[in-house]
Please model this.
Amino acid sequence: MFCLAVMAGCAAQMYTAGMAPVKENLIRNGTFSIASIEQEVFDGSGRVKLDAGLVALLELGAIYPLQKQYDSSNQVLESAYHRYTMLEERARISVRNTAKDMLDIILAEGAGEYDIAPWEKIFLHTIKAMNFLMLERFDAARVEIMRGINQNLRIREIAELKIAEVRKSKNLVRQEAAKNNIHKIDVDRQVRQLTQENGLSSAQEQAVRNLRNSYENACTYLLSALVFALTREPENARPQLKNARALTDNPYVKKLYDDFQKDSSALTSLHNVYVFIQTGFAPTKRNVQVPFLNPVSRTVSSFSMAAINESPLDIFAVDIFDSASGDAKRMPLLADLDLLALRQYRDDLPIRITKAVLRVILQTLKDRAILDETAKKTKDTTLLQLTRIALSTFNQTVNKSDLRAWNMAPRNVCFYCSATKEASLMLKVSDRSGHVVQQPVPIDPNRVNIVWARCIGPRVFVNTCAFDR
Model:
Protein backbone atom coordinates (compact mmCIF):
# COMPACT_ATOMS: atom_id res chain seq x y z
CA MET A 1 0.00 0.00 0.00
CA PHE A 2 2.88 2.35 0.77
CA CYS A 3 4.42 1.79 -2.69
CA LEU A 4 1.05 2.35 -4.38
CA ALA A 5 0.58 5.60 -2.48
CA VAL A 6 4.06 6.78 -3.46
CA MET A 7 3.54 5.99 -7.17
CA ALA A 8 0.05 7.50 -7.28
CA GLY A 9 1.11 10.63 -5.41
CA CYS A 10 4.06 11.22 -7.74
CA ALA A 11 1.93 10.60 -10.86
CA ALA A 12 -0.67 13.11 -9.67
CA GLN A 13 2.08 15.70 -9.15
CA MET A 14 3.65 15.17 -12.58
CA TYR A 15 0.48 14.91 -14.68
CA THR A 16 0.25 18.54 -15.81
CA ALA A 17 3.94 18.59 -16.77
CA GLY A 18 3.33 15.48 -18.86
CA MET A 19 0.48 17.19 -20.71
CA ALA A 20 2.54 20.29 -21.53
CA PRO A 21 4.15 18.78 -24.70
CA VAL A 22 0.72 17.73 -25.98
CA LYS A 23 -0.57 21.31 -25.75
CA GLU A 24 2.66 22.79 -27.07
CA ASN A 25 2.74 20.54 -30.15
CA LEU A 26 -0.88 21.39 -30.91
CA ILE A 27 -0.19 25.13 -30.70
CA ARG A 28 3.12 25.16 -32.59
CA ASN A 29 2.73 22.40 -35.14
CA GLY A 30 -0.94 21.40 -35.13
CA THR A 31 0.13 17.82 -34.36
CA PHE A 32 -1.51 15.40 -31.94
CA SER A 33 1.12 13.91 -29.62
CA ILE A 34 -1.29 11.64 -27.76
CA ALA A 35 0.28 8.18 -28.12
CA SER A 36 1.20 8.02 -24.41
CA ILE A 37 -2.36 8.98 -23.36
CA GLU A 38 -3.87 6.39 -25.72
CA GLN A 39 -1.49 3.78 -24.34
CA GLU A 40 -2.76 4.54 -20.84
CA VAL A 41 -6.41 4.33 -21.93
CA PHE A 42 -6.60 1.46 -24.46
CA ASP A 43 -5.49 -2.17 -24.28
CA GLY A 44 -3.87 -4.06 -27.16
CA SER A 45 -7.24 -4.82 -28.77
CA GLY A 46 -8.39 -1.19 -28.73
CA ARG A 47 -10.79 -1.51 -25.81
CA VAL A 48 -10.80 0.98 -22.94
CA LYS A 49 -8.91 -0.43 -19.96
CA LEU A 50 -10.91 -0.92 -16.78
CA ASP A 51 -8.21 0.92 -14.83
CA ALA A 52 -7.71 3.75 -17.35
CA GLY A 53 -7.22 7.07 -15.57
CA LEU A 54 -10.36 9.21 -15.46
CA VAL A 55 -8.53 12.41 -16.37
CA ALA A 56 -6.84 10.68 -19.34
CA LEU A 57 -10.28 9.67 -20.62
CA LEU A 58 -11.37 13.30 -20.44
CA GLU A 59 -8.26 14.48 -22.30
CA LEU A 60 -8.87 12.14 -25.23
CA GLY A 61 -12.58 12.99 -25.21
CA ALA A 62 -11.69 16.64 -25.88
CA ILE A 63 -8.91 15.90 -28.40
CA TYR A 64 -10.62 13.36 -30.67
CA PRO A 65 -13.26 15.80 -32.04
CA LEU A 66 -10.40 17.97 -33.31
CA GLN A 67 -9.51 14.98 -35.50
CA LYS A 68 -13.19 14.38 -36.32
CA GLN A 69 -13.04 11.07 -34.44
CA TYR A 70 -16.48 11.54 -32.89
CA ASP A 71 -17.13 7.88 -32.10
CA SER A 72 -13.77 7.54 -30.35
CA SER A 73 -14.46 10.68 -28.33
CA ASN A 74 -17.84 9.34 -27.24
CA GLN A 75 -16.34 5.97 -26.36
CA VAL A 76 -13.83 7.41 -23.87
CA LEU A 77 -16.23 10.02 -22.49
CA GLU A 78 -18.85 7.33 -21.87
CA SER A 79 -16.21 5.39 -19.95
CA ALA A 80 -15.46 8.56 -17.97
CA TYR A 81 -19.17 8.95 -17.20
CA HIS A 82 -19.46 5.39 -15.89
CA ARG A 83 -16.23 5.77 -13.92
CA TYR A 84 -17.22 8.87 -12.02
CA THR A 85 -20.79 7.68 -11.34
CA MET A 86 -19.30 4.48 -9.91
CA LEU A 87 -17.01 6.56 -7.69
CA GLU A 88 -19.97 8.64 -6.52
CA GLU A 89 -21.88 5.50 -5.59
CA ARG A 90 -18.87 4.29 -3.66
CA ALA A 91 -18.87 7.63 -1.79
CA ARG A 92 -22.53 7.12 -0.87
CA ILE A 93 -21.75 3.67 0.53
CA SER A 94 -18.79 5.07 2.49
CA VAL A 95 -20.93 7.77 4.09
CA ARG A 96 -23.70 5.30 4.94
CA ASN A 97 -21.25 3.06 6.80
CA THR A 98 -21.05 3.71 10.52
CA ALA A 99 -17.25 3.41 10.57
CA LYS A 100 -14.73 5.10 8.31
CA ASP A 101 -11.42 3.51 7.42
CA MET A 102 -8.47 5.43 8.80
CA LEU A 103 -6.62 4.85 5.52
CA ASP A 104 -9.26 6.86 3.64
CA ILE A 105 -8.31 9.91 5.69
CA ILE A 106 -4.55 9.38 5.64
CA LEU A 107 -4.21 8.99 1.87
CA ALA A 108 -4.19 12.34 0.11
CA GLU A 109 -6.20 13.27 -2.98
CA GLY A 110 -3.37 12.50 -5.39
CA ALA A 111 -3.20 8.88 -4.20
CA GLY A 112 -6.70 8.14 -5.48
CA GLU A 113 -8.82 8.57 -8.58
CA TYR A 114 -9.15 11.97 -10.24
CA ASP A 115 -11.79 14.08 -8.48
CA ILE A 116 -13.80 15.33 -11.45
CA ALA A 117 -15.05 18.90 -11.07
CA PRO A 118 -18.78 19.72 -11.27
CA TRP A 119 -18.45 21.82 -14.43
CA GLU A 120 -16.44 19.00 -16.04
CA LYS A 121 -19.27 16.53 -15.40
CA ILE A 122 -21.66 18.79 -17.27
CA PHE A 123 -19.31 19.76 -20.09
CA LEU A 124 -18.30 16.21 -21.00
CA HIS A 125 -21.96 15.53 -21.87
CA THR A 126 -22.02 18.73 -23.92
CA ILE A 127 -19.09 17.43 -25.99
CA LYS A 128 -20.81 14.06 -26.42
CA ALA A 129 -24.06 15.71 -27.53
CA MET A 130 -22.21 17.76 -30.13
CA ASN A 131 -20.35 14.65 -31.31
CA PHE A 132 -23.67 12.89 -31.86
CA LEU A 133 -25.01 15.88 -33.78
CA MET A 134 -21.97 15.72 -36.06
CA LEU A 135 -22.87 12.05 -36.61
CA GLU A 136 -26.52 13.06 -37.21
CA ARG A 137 -27.71 10.90 -34.33
CA PHE A 138 -30.40 13.11 -32.79
CA ASP A 139 -31.76 10.62 -30.26
CA ALA A 140 -28.32 9.96 -28.80
CA ALA A 141 -27.62 13.71 -28.65
CA ARG A 142 -30.92 14.14 -26.82
CA VAL A 143 -29.84 11.58 -24.20
CA GLU A 144 -26.56 13.39 -23.60
CA ILE A 145 -28.01 16.85 -23.20
CA MET A 146 -30.48 15.46 -20.64
CA ARG A 147 -27.61 13.80 -18.80
CA GLY A 148 -25.79 17.13 -18.69
CA ILE A 149 -28.83 18.98 -17.40
CA ASN A 150 -29.59 16.34 -14.78
CA GLN A 151 -26.05 16.57 -13.44
CA ASN A 152 -27.01 19.68 -11.48
CA LEU A 153 -29.15 17.61 -9.11
CA ARG A 154 -26.38 15.03 -8.68
CA ILE A 155 -23.81 17.77 -8.02
CA ARG A 156 -25.87 19.02 -5.08
CA GLU A 157 -26.16 15.47 -3.73
CA ILE A 158 -22.40 14.91 -3.96
CA ALA A 159 -21.73 18.23 -2.18
CA GLU A 160 -23.87 16.99 0.72
CA LEU A 161 -22.00 13.67 0.71
CA LYS A 162 -18.65 15.48 0.95
CA ILE A 163 -19.85 17.40 3.99
CA ALA A 164 -21.11 14.19 5.62
CA GLU A 165 -17.80 12.48 4.88
CA VAL A 166 -15.82 15.27 6.55
CA ARG A 167 -18.13 15.11 9.57
CA LYS A 168 -17.39 11.39 9.99
CA SER A 169 -13.66 12.01 9.58
CA LYS A 170 -13.76 14.62 12.34
CA ASN A 171 -15.40 12.15 14.70
CA LEU A 172 -12.77 9.51 13.97
CA VAL A 173 -9.90 11.95 14.59
CA ARG A 174 -11.51 13.06 17.88
CA GLN A 175 -11.73 9.40 18.96
CA GLU A 176 -8.08 8.80 18.11
CA ALA A 177 -7.05 11.97 19.92
CA ALA A 178 -8.98 10.93 23.02
CA LYS A 179 -7.02 7.65 23.09
CA ASN A 180 -3.88 9.78 23.30
CA ASN A 181 -5.31 11.95 26.09
CA ILE A 182 -5.87 14.90 23.75
CA HIS A 183 -9.44 15.91 24.46
CA LYS A 184 -9.90 19.12 22.52
CA ILE A 185 -8.93 19.77 18.92
CA ASP A 186 -10.51 22.90 17.48
CA VAL A 187 -10.24 22.06 13.77
CA ASP A 188 -13.07 24.38 12.73
CA ARG A 189 -11.35 27.52 13.98
CA GLN A 190 -8.13 26.69 12.13
CA VAL A 191 -10.05 25.81 8.96
CA ARG A 192 -11.86 29.15 8.96
CA GLN A 193 -8.55 30.99 9.22
CA LEU A 194 -6.79 28.87 6.59
CA THR A 195 -9.73 29.14 4.19
CA GLN A 196 -9.63 32.92 4.41
CA GLU A 197 -5.86 32.99 3.84
CA ASN A 198 -5.96 30.65 0.83
CA GLY A 199 -9.13 31.88 -0.84
CA LEU A 200 -9.56 33.74 -4.11
CA SER A 201 -8.40 37.30 -4.67
CA SER A 202 -10.99 40.04 -4.26
CA ALA A 203 -11.31 40.40 -8.06
CA GLN A 204 -11.80 36.65 -8.51
CA GLU A 205 -14.29 36.54 -5.66
CA GLN A 206 -16.31 39.34 -7.22
CA ALA A 207 -16.31 37.58 -10.60
CA VAL A 208 -17.49 34.33 -9.01
CA ARG A 209 -20.30 36.14 -7.17
CA ASN A 210 -21.60 37.32 -10.54
CA LEU A 211 -22.07 33.72 -11.68
CA ARG A 212 -25.63 32.50 -11.85
CA ASN A 213 -27.08 29.08 -11.09
CA SER A 214 -24.42 26.82 -9.63
CA TYR A 215 -22.17 25.11 -12.21
CA GLU A 216 -24.57 25.24 -15.14
CA ASN A 217 -23.39 26.90 -18.32
CA ALA A 218 -25.34 28.56 -21.11
CA CYS A 219 -23.58 26.49 -23.79
CA THR A 220 -25.15 23.25 -22.52
CA TYR A 221 -28.62 24.77 -22.28
CA LEU A 222 -28.45 26.43 -25.70
CA LEU A 223 -27.26 23.23 -27.34
CA SER A 224 -30.12 21.42 -25.58
CA ALA A 225 -32.63 23.87 -27.05
CA LEU A 226 -31.19 23.32 -30.53
CA VAL A 227 -31.39 19.53 -30.18
CA PHE A 228 -35.04 19.76 -29.15
CA ALA A 229 -35.73 22.12 -32.03
CA LEU A 230 -34.16 19.67 -34.48
CA THR A 231 -36.21 16.81 -33.02
CA ARG A 232 -39.31 19.05 -33.34
CA GLU A 233 -40.00 19.32 -29.60
CA PRO A 234 -40.55 23.08 -29.14
CA GLU A 235 -42.09 22.72 -25.68
CA ASN A 236 -38.96 20.94 -24.46
CA ALA A 237 -36.77 23.55 -26.16
CA ARG A 238 -38.51 26.41 -24.36
CA PRO A 239 -37.16 25.89 -20.78
CA GLN A 240 -33.66 25.14 -22.09
CA LEU A 241 -33.55 28.35 -24.09
CA LYS A 242 -34.94 30.27 -21.12
CA ASN A 243 -32.20 28.87 -18.88
CA ALA A 244 -29.53 29.77 -21.45
CA ARG A 245 -30.92 33.31 -21.60
CA ALA A 246 -30.74 33.57 -17.79
CA LEU A 247 -27.10 32.47 -17.67
CA THR A 248 -25.54 34.71 -20.30
CA ASP A 249 -25.52 38.26 -21.60
CA ASN A 250 -24.75 37.05 -25.13
CA PRO A 251 -26.97 39.23 -27.40
CA TYR A 252 -27.51 36.44 -29.91
CA VAL A 253 -28.99 34.21 -27.21
CA LYS A 254 -31.23 37.08 -26.15
CA LYS A 255 -32.45 37.50 -29.74
CA LEU A 256 -33.07 33.76 -30.08
CA TYR A 257 -35.15 33.80 -26.92
CA ASP A 258 -37.17 36.85 -28.00
CA ASP A 259 -37.81 35.32 -31.43
CA PHE A 260 -38.82 32.01 -29.86
CA GLN A 261 -41.34 33.77 -27.63
CA LYS A 262 -43.10 34.99 -30.78
CA ASP A 263 -42.64 31.86 -32.90
CA SER A 264 -41.73 28.44 -31.45
CA SER A 265 -40.21 27.37 -34.79
CA ALA A 266 -37.79 30.31 -34.83
CA LEU A 267 -34.72 28.22 -33.94
CA THR A 268 -34.90 26.45 -37.29
CA SER A 269 -36.95 28.84 -39.43
CA LEU A 270 -35.41 32.27 -38.74
CA HIS A 271 -31.74 31.31 -38.38
CA ASN A 272 -29.70 28.78 -40.31
CA VAL A 273 -26.21 29.23 -38.84
CA TYR A 274 -25.20 28.53 -35.23
CA VAL A 275 -21.51 28.94 -34.42
CA PHE A 276 -19.91 27.77 -31.15
CA ILE A 277 -16.21 28.64 -30.74
CA GLN A 278 -14.14 27.08 -27.95
CA THR A 279 -11.01 29.07 -27.13
CA GLY A 280 -7.93 28.50 -25.02
CA PHE A 281 -7.39 25.85 -22.35
CA ALA A 282 -9.06 25.22 -19.01
CA PRO A 283 -7.08 26.26 -15.92
CA THR A 284 -4.30 24.11 -14.50
CA LYS A 285 -3.29 23.78 -10.85
CA ARG A 286 -0.27 24.80 -8.82
CA ASN A 287 1.07 23.51 -5.53
CA VAL A 288 0.64 25.66 -2.42
CA GLN A 289 2.26 24.83 0.92
CA VAL A 290 -0.08 25.68 3.80
CA PRO A 291 1.38 25.94 7.36
CA PHE A 292 -0.79 25.47 10.45
CA LEU A 293 -0.39 24.81 14.17
CA ASN A 294 -0.55 21.07 14.79
CA PRO A 295 -2.46 20.58 18.08
CA VAL A 296 -0.91 17.13 18.61
CA SER A 297 2.79 17.91 18.18
CA ARG A 298 2.41 21.58 19.24
CA THR A 299 4.56 22.51 16.27
CA VAL A 300 3.93 24.24 12.95
CA SER A 301 2.99 21.49 10.51
CA SER A 302 2.07 21.92 6.86
CA PHE A 303 0.24 20.28 3.99
CA SER A 304 0.18 20.74 0.24
CA MET A 305 -2.87 22.02 -1.58
CA ALA A 306 -3.69 22.47 -5.27
CA ALA A 307 -4.71 26.03 -6.14
CA ILE A 308 -6.15 27.20 -9.46
CA ASN A 309 -3.89 28.65 -12.13
CA GLU A 310 -6.14 30.83 -14.27
CA SER A 311 -5.58 30.31 -17.99
CA PRO A 312 -3.96 33.15 -19.92
CA LEU A 313 -6.21 35.00 -22.37
CA ASP A 314 -4.32 33.95 -25.49
CA ILE A 315 -7.24 34.69 -27.86
CA PHE A 316 -8.08 38.38 -28.01
CA ALA A 317 -11.14 38.18 -30.27
CA VAL A 318 -13.07 35.95 -32.66
CA ASP A 319 -14.90 37.69 -35.51
CA ILE A 320 -17.13 36.19 -38.16
CA PHE A 321 -18.27 37.59 -41.52
CA ASP A 322 -19.76 36.44 -44.83
CA SER A 323 -18.54 37.27 -48.30
CA ALA A 324 -21.65 39.26 -49.21
CA SER A 325 -21.51 42.01 -46.58
CA GLY A 326 -17.88 41.73 -45.53
CA ASP A 327 -18.87 43.21 -42.17
CA ALA A 328 -17.16 41.44 -39.28
CA LYS A 329 -19.29 40.58 -36.24
CA ARG A 330 -17.62 40.02 -32.89
CA MET A 331 -18.46 36.68 -31.25
CA PRO A 332 -19.39 37.39 -27.61
CA LEU A 333 -18.87 35.07 -24.67
CA LEU A 334 -21.40 32.30 -24.05
CA ALA A 335 -19.80 30.25 -21.25
CA ASP A 336 -16.76 31.00 -19.05
CA LEU A 337 -15.45 27.60 -17.90
CA ASP A 338 -12.42 29.23 -16.29
CA LEU A 339 -14.77 31.07 -13.95
CA LEU A 340 -16.68 27.88 -13.15
CA ALA A 341 -13.36 26.27 -12.13
CA LEU A 342 -12.68 29.20 -9.78
CA ARG A 343 -16.13 28.77 -8.26
CA GLN A 344 -15.50 25.10 -7.66
CA TYR A 345 -12.18 25.94 -5.97
CA ARG A 346 -13.91 28.45 -3.68
CA ASP A 347 -16.82 26.16 -2.84
CA ASP A 348 -14.62 23.13 -2.10
CA LEU A 349 -11.89 25.01 -0.23
CA PRO A 350 -13.25 24.58 3.36
CA ILE A 351 -13.79 20.86 2.80
CA ARG A 352 -10.38 20.32 1.22
CA ILE A 353 -8.58 22.22 3.99
CA THR A 354 -10.52 20.34 6.67
CA LYS A 355 -9.57 16.99 5.16
CA ALA A 356 -5.92 18.03 4.85
CA VAL A 357 -5.74 19.24 8.47
CA LEU A 358 -7.43 16.06 9.71
CA ARG A 359 -5.03 14.00 7.60
CA VAL A 360 -1.94 15.57 9.16
CA ILE A 361 -3.36 15.38 12.68
CA LEU A 362 -4.33 11.73 12.33
CA GLN A 363 -0.99 10.85 10.76
CA THR A 364 0.79 12.62 13.64
CA LEU A 365 -1.20 10.55 16.13
CA LYS A 366 -0.35 7.34 14.27
CA ASP A 367 3.34 8.27 14.01
CA ARG A 368 3.56 8.92 17.72
CA ALA A 369 1.90 5.60 18.49
CA ILE A 370 4.27 3.73 16.14
CA LEU A 371 7.37 5.39 17.56
CA ASP A 372 6.24 4.77 21.15
CA GLU A 373 5.60 1.09 20.35
CA THR A 374 8.97 0.74 18.60
CA ALA A 375 10.74 2.35 21.56
CA LYS A 376 9.11 -0.17 23.94
CA LYS A 377 10.33 -3.12 21.84
CA THR A 378 13.90 -2.03 21.16
CA LYS A 379 16.66 0.24 22.38
CA ASP A 380 18.24 0.16 18.92
CA THR A 381 18.62 3.86 18.04
CA THR A 382 19.33 2.98 14.39
CA LEU A 383 16.00 1.17 14.06
CA LEU A 384 14.20 4.08 15.70
CA GLN A 385 15.86 6.51 13.28
CA LEU A 386 14.92 4.32 10.27
CA THR A 387 11.32 4.23 11.51
CA ARG A 388 11.27 8.03 11.72
CA ILE A 389 12.68 8.31 8.17
CA ALA A 390 10.11 5.85 6.78
CA LEU A 391 7.24 7.74 8.41
CA SER A 392 8.59 11.07 7.21
CA THR A 393 8.84 9.77 3.62
CA PHE A 394 5.30 8.44 3.73
CA ASN A 395 3.94 11.71 5.11
CA GLN A 396 5.66 13.75 2.43
CA THR A 397 4.19 11.48 -0.26
CA VAL A 398 0.60 11.41 0.92
CA ASN A 399 0.60 15.14 1.62
CA LYS A 400 1.44 16.09 -1.96
CA SER A 401 -1.44 17.89 -3.64
CA ASP A 402 -3.25 16.54 -6.68
CA LEU A 403 -2.23 18.67 -9.66
CA ARG A 404 -4.22 16.71 -12.23
CA ALA A 405 -6.66 18.75 -14.31
CA TRP A 406 -8.58 18.40 -17.57
CA ASN A 407 -5.93 20.25 -19.57
CA MET A 408 -7.60 19.93 -22.99
CA ALA A 409 -10.97 21.37 -22.01
CA PRO A 410 -11.52 24.91 -23.37
CA ARG A 411 -11.23 28.09 -21.34
CA ASN A 412 -14.50 29.49 -22.65
CA VAL A 413 -17.10 29.23 -25.42
CA CYS A 414 -18.25 32.08 -27.68
CA PHE A 415 -21.46 32.06 -29.72
CA TYR A 416 -22.95 33.66 -32.83
CA CYS A 417 -26.03 32.92 -34.95
CA SER A 418 -27.47 34.40 -38.13
CA ALA A 419 -29.49 33.84 -41.27
CA THR A 420 -27.30 33.74 -44.37
CA LYS A 421 -27.66 32.87 -48.03
CA GLU A 422 -23.92 32.52 -48.52
CA ALA A 423 -22.13 29.22 -49.13
CA SER A 424 -19.40 30.02 -46.60
CA LEU A 425 -18.48 32.15 -43.62
CA MET A 426 -15.06 33.33 -42.51
CA LEU A 427 -13.72 33.05 -38.99
CA LYS A 428 -11.11 35.61 -38.00
CA VAL A 429 -9.18 34.75 -34.84
CA SER A 430 -6.87 37.37 -33.31
CA ASP A 431 -4.44 36.73 -30.48
CA ARG A 432 -2.93 39.28 -28.09
CA SER A 433 0.31 39.54 -30.05
CA GLY A 434 -1.59 40.78 -33.10
CA HIS A 435 -1.39 37.52 -35.01
CA VAL A 436 -4.52 36.84 -37.10
CA VAL A 437 -5.79 33.54 -38.51
CA GLN A 438 -8.65 33.38 -41.01
CA GLN A 439 -10.53 30.11 -41.47
CA PRO A 440 -13.28 29.56 -44.08
CA VAL A 441 -16.34 27.61 -42.90
CA PRO A 442 -18.57 25.92 -45.52
CA ILE A 443 -22.31 26.58 -45.10
CA ASP A 444 -25.39 25.05 -46.70
CA PRO A 445 -27.73 28.08 -47.00
CA ASN A 446 -30.79 25.85 -47.44
CA ARG A 447 -30.30 23.89 -44.22
CA VAL A 448 -29.65 24.50 -40.51
CA ASN A 449 -25.88 24.60 -39.91
CA ILE A 450 -24.13 24.00 -36.61
CA VAL A 451 -20.43 24.88 -36.35
CA TRP A 452 -18.40 23.57 -33.40
CA ALA A 453 -14.87 24.98 -33.65
CA ARG A 454 -11.83 25.04 -31.39
CA CYS A 455 -9.19 27.79 -31.39
CA ILE A 456 -5.86 26.70 -29.92
CA GLY A 457 -3.22 29.38 -30.38
CA PRO A 458 -2.96 29.99 -34.14
CA ARG A 459 -4.78 26.73 -34.93
CA VAL A 460 -8.49 26.57 -35.73
CA PHE A 461 -10.20 23.16 -35.87
CA VAL A 462 -13.67 23.33 -37.43
CA ASN A 463 -16.48 20.76 -37.26
CA THR A 464 -19.70 21.41 -39.16
CA CYS A 465 -23.00 19.65 -39.77
CA ALA A 466 -26.14 20.65 -41.66
CA PHE A 467 -29.70 19.48 -41.05
CA ASP A 468 -33.05 19.85 -42.81
CA ARG A 469 -35.26 22.53 -41.36
Residues 138-179 form the longest helix (42 residues). The longest strand covers residues 284-294.
